[in-house]
Amino acid sequence: MTGLNLSEWALKHRSLVVYVMMVAVITGALAYFRLGRNEDPSFIIKTMVVQAAWPGATAEETMKQVTERLERQLQQTPHLDFLRSSTRAGLVTIFVNLEGSANARQVSDAWYEVRKSVGDMRHTLPSGVIGPGFNDDFGDTFGIVYGFTSDGFTQRELRDRVEDIRSRLLRIPDVSKIELMGAQDEVIFVEFPKQELATLGIDRTALLAALQAQNIVHPAGMIQTSKESISVRVSGSFQSEQDIAAVNFVAGGRTIRLSDIAQVRRGYVDPPQPMFRVNGQPAIGLAIAMRDGGDILALGRNIKKVMEQITADLPIGIEPSLVADQAVVVEGAIGEFMTSLLQAIAIIMVVSFISLGIRPGLIIALAIPLTLAIVFPIMEMARIDMQRISLGALIIALALLVDDAMTTTDATLTRLAQGDSKVDAATFAYRSHAFAMLAGTLVTIAGFIPVGFAASSAGEYTFSLFAVVAIALLVSWFVAVIFTPLLGVLILVPPKQKNSAEPGRIFRLYRSCLTLAMRAKWLTIAVSLALFVASVLALPLIPQQFFPSSDRPELLVDLSLPQNASIFASEAAAKRLDAALAGDPDVHHWSTNVGRGAIRFYLPLNAELPNDFFTQAVVVAKDVAARERLHVKLERLLAEEFPAAVASVSPLGLGPPVGWPLQYRVSGPDVEQVREFALKVGQILASDPRTKSINFDWMEPARELRIRVDQDEARRLGLSSQAISTVLNTVISGAIVTQVRDDVYLVDVVARAVDEQRISLSNLRTLQVPLPGGRTVSLSQFATFEFQQQNPLIWRRDRVPTLTVRADINGGSLPNSVVDALSPAIERLRKTLPAFYEVVVGGTVEESRRSQASVLAVVPMMLFVMFTVLMVQLQSFPRLLMVASVAPLGMIGVVAALLLSGRPMGFVTILGVLALLGMICKNAVILIGQIDAERAQGKSPWEAAVDASSSRFRPIMLTAVSTVLGMIPIAPTVFWGPMAVAIMGGLLVATVLTLVLLPTMYVACFGEKERAGAPAASPS
């Protein structure tokens, strides 16, 4: 090795290196406490919501005139993946989904382009369209949610208090935004009896116009004198409902007070806005979002402190409840992972002390905090928080980062045993192993490249795994070549015996196996290849999974009534669910969202659109065991008590949100045909006993009352369809006349008929429609009434009507297994479909395949980097081929470990298997380098292979055992467990094969036979 010897430089500048070590430890400790804390890594929800309203239009008209025009424009969005739209009568919601490969800058540019392009075409939309509006904060996470209930206070009084609390909380550092949930806007109703107006001959339209004119805000001018400016204000604006009731107007030559002919009262919007309930009580919620890069633990402490002060000032009767507290979850998760990290450190230290001795073990023990102390500031600069992925990555990296330190320490001990001075022994490792260790480190990092560069949401979610492991491994190499030699000089002492002791039993067994394998080299290679082929053939036996469920105690309970159900029906269902939860001993607390899904209190949550027919409850069990019991009870309850609802119970998921586990999209140009084919798909799903709760995202039609106007008769009477619709809307739903400016609120004044006259069909037939000139006529004189059916909701995907068939699966089954079993039947159905109709797998399976494809797309780059590093180090095609041949053999151990443990092959496990390739290559590179070094001393290939394998046996086995044992703390975890088991099994088997198969392949490649009477190698 030529060039600068970093170990030698470190020994010549001991004081400087010691100073750097001290600074690193202090800086690392400070950085650790400054690092952000969060539950999950932040990833961009690459979805924008575009909404527009066209009041009065049917669903069909809205789809053709608004949805279609908007979608045509939005299809030109750069980096677009797909469009998904929901169209209801008079309302369209379009989800613009970008490709997983889009980065933050491209996402921002795309959203700007959406706003600009839609703004340019807004004039082409029908007159009367409101919007479109845009929401690109769809992925905001509101990790802390409070609910406020009241006893003895009006909704308005409670809201005033909550608004004040919101203002105070917004001043807390790290709070980015706060959303109000369940608040009902106040309305002043002016309710007219229809018959009385007709009897008095009052023109309702003129009356409403008079109210608007009196309440209008209009400048009255400004008087300018030589000394001052005086504003002129005209009185008359309404300050309260009493002002409206006191309005006088002239009708038929008489002055009439409004309160004499109409009921004027203050109430709340009717029908209600989405409602929020806490533990069965109506409530107003405050959902608090943290700014990017914030510390959720610090935020939680600050909010708790302020809320204690606020609660002390609240009047008796208003009670705050902590509905969701991500800070507590994160604190518990970080505490568990720190415990796992300390356990892993302790395990590795014990292995080091037992295998190497007290002094060498102490060097390894010191290398761990030194490496972590440097890693933490780099994480802080790279804005990598302490969260689920980065904490797991630290434990995985911990099991790998001691590798170089062990290699350096073992080499130093070997040279000390041979009589070298401390300085020569400490610098020998750099001369003989530094570049092989660096190549191995780079190859190991290359194994994680698919994690870091997978262009998908799942890849973005797990990116910090690559980043943290790469940082830790590079730092560990520098620690091994700079700090470890210095620690070796200061701590190590020459062994009392210069010659090694009698070989141990394990070493003798290994030596015997190696010799037998090398003698029967072709049999050894054939057996290894056969085991590899068997492991590949056994892969389908391993259950497939995308991401596992979370180990949080929450359960999501979804209730979907028929899609024409009112929010009052949803509220009644929510109250029945609340009553069932109230006495359950496994329930800690719960919150219910009526008319909408839960706010995104958890980043991977699959957020639902507001819909009157939808209710979602978040039930927090007392622990995970209670959650499982509660899951079974709730499924039974929903099946028995809510047979008409589409209900599901599920724990929180991990990874990107996907919704129902089983989904099939049926799409085509004709809605009726799509519905027919979707029913057939539903029958196929029902044929599998593992499926349950089969449902459709839209299917059932709804009733519509069609009023057919005799246009000739209406024109003869001086009426138009617009005038008739206006009268009907005012009577039935109510029309906003004006607004009362009440403090910080704007309170709509709504004119409508009294309750008993608004919801009766018979009253509608006798409705008196005002004619020009003051007369009235019954609606039934020029109109007929009939009921028709319409689609209350139509989903489209990329402008094609798309009906999604959804299902849940029984416990113990995995979506991939069910989809594989259903594939033949689905394929037979596909062959019967006409042109332009298709059935596509969606949900968990689709997202898993997309994510795996994004990983596999990066594998060529991973292999290129690996082969390049290996070729630079080995500079030999035969040696490169040997290393490349050994690397995949880890699959033997991976498959065996997963099958024996029953763990699934998930997305994170696949990443671990790819990373395993780099770990195996690292050992192979160092071993081949040692064989070549032995040959450089004049030994034959056989002797060199035996001696090099014998000398590398201890450090390679030590690092492998340390890695395997170091992963024990995370092996039981839900998220990291399958990956840890796969790496443990794969690395253990691959290490043994590396120590046996690689020397055998080397001898087979270079054609050297065993020499008679060859000396036995010493176990150094």
UniProtKB/TrEMBL annotation:
The lineage of its organism: Bacteria, Pseudomonadati, Pseudomonadota, Alphaproteobacteria, Hyphomicrobiales. It comes from Bradyrhizobium zhengyangense. Gene3D superfamilies: Multidrug efflux transporter AcrB pore domain, Multidrug efflux transporter AcrB pore domain like, Multidrug efflux transporter AcrB TolC docking domain, DN and DC subdomains, Multidrug efflux transporter AcrB transmembrane domain. Keywords: Membrane, Transmembrane, Transmembrane helix. This is Efflux RND transporter permease subunit. The keyword Membrane applies. Pfam families: ACR_tran. The chain crosses the membrane at residues 16-35, 362-379, 434-455, 461-493, 522-542, 853-873, 880-900, 906-929, 956-975, 981-1004.
